[in-house]
Write a structure and sequence with these properties.
Elements lengths: L7 E6 L1 H18 L2 E6 L7 H9 L3 E3 L3 H9 L6 E6 L7 H4 L4 E7 L11 H7 L4 E8 L9 E8 L6 H24 L34 H11 L11 E4 L2 E12 L9 E5 L4 E8 L5 H8 L1
Parallel strand pairs: 1-2, 1-4, 2-3, 4-5
Antiparallel strand pairs: 5-6, 6-7, 8-9, 9-11, 10-11
Helix pairs in contact: 1-2, 1-6, 5-7
């Protein structure tokens, strides 16, 4: 049996990355002799980690209340415990982070120290970055400030949407975790300190790129960046983008970059020249708009 520094491993989070992490934790438990469990703090209907826990008989708890979750972690303070935070928005209190018996590692969907905080894929797109990536790092009291364990890089392509970038990052995060997990268990991971600027911006959950608004006379490339940054597909992370037409507030229900030859002249759509070959099609949301307003909108 390999020498492991922990008696117990806790996985907390939801989604694809958490499922991959839990699979690895489960598969290596007999090799390293630790016990393990899964905690679901934010309940999601299609949670890969929960499905795996149920299928494999992995112990798991649903703890949605932050106070209950904190108390639960406090009960682990006397046990050598590794907590793996994957796609998790719970902020660990100082008592847990500073405990000698607790080590916490976290997955972040950007290349720290860039873009700390929430919704980093959106900000990568909105700020026009050519590339981004993922980071596994140790958790300290400061938000996303802990030593880096491993990072992987990916391109932010010209047409990529937020949900597509997230999918790429999820795959990279799973690969990176498999590469570093055993070294973390044995306390042999190579740690890289972050260079933290004093005035760095930490992106908050309530912040929306561009405040979710644009003007129709803005650069089409800037409009397209905003729309892609807000686009999480069926997951309503952000509200629909807003603009004004003929002085009327409207929402963009759908958008697409299409050929200049494609033009169906739909009354609920706006077509903005993008470049020599393409135009940006914006389909408007007409929900709850009265008939006089609708006529003014499309005129």
């Amino acid at each position: 049996m390999s020498e492991c520094q922990f008696d117990h491993v806790v996985v907390i989070g939801y989604g694809v990355v958490t499922g991959e992490v839990l699979k690895t934790v489960y598969s290596l438990a007999s090799k390293y002799g630790y016990t393990y469990e899964y905690i679901e703090h934010e309940v999601h209907p299609f949670n890969a980690a929960k499905k795996l826990a149920e299928a494999k008989g992995i112990p798991y708890n649903i703890l949605q209340d932050k106070k209950d979750l904190t108390r639960y972690f406090e009960e682990l303070l006397m046990k050598k415990t590794l907590i793996i935070s994957a796609s998790n928005n719970y902020l660990f209190p100082e008592k847990i982070v500073s405990s000698e018996n607790i080590v916490i590692i976290n997955f972040h969907n950007a290349l720290l120290p860039e873009l700390p905080g929430r919704n980093a894929p959106s900000w990568s797109i909105y700020e026009g970055k050519d590339y981004t990536g993922i980071t596994w790092h140790y958790v300290t009291e400061g938000v996303d400030e802990g030593d880096i364990i491993v990072q992987k890089k990916c391109d932010v392509t010209a047409d990529i949407k937020a949900y597509e970038l997230v999918a790429v990052q999820m795959r990279l995060a799973g690969e990176a975790f498999d590469e570093c997990y055993e070294s973390v268990l044995m306390n042999q991971a190579i740690r890289k300190k972050q260079v933290i600027e004093k005035d760095r911006r930490i992106y908050k959950s309530y912040e929306i790129p561009g405040n979710g608004c644009f003007n129709l006379d803005d650069s089409p490339k800037e409009i397209y960046k905003l729309l892609r940054a807000l686009d999480y597909g069926k997951n309503n992370i952000f509200p629909l983008a807003r603009t004004k037409k003929n002085g009327i507030d409207i929402q963009i229900r759908r958008y697409k970059k299409i050929s200049v030859c494609d033009h169906d002249a739909r009354q609920d759509s706006i077509y903005i020249p993008f470049d020599n070959e393409n135009q940006l099609m914006l389909r408007l949301s007409l929900i709850h708009i009265s008939e006089p307003t609708r006529l003014a909108l499309i005129s």
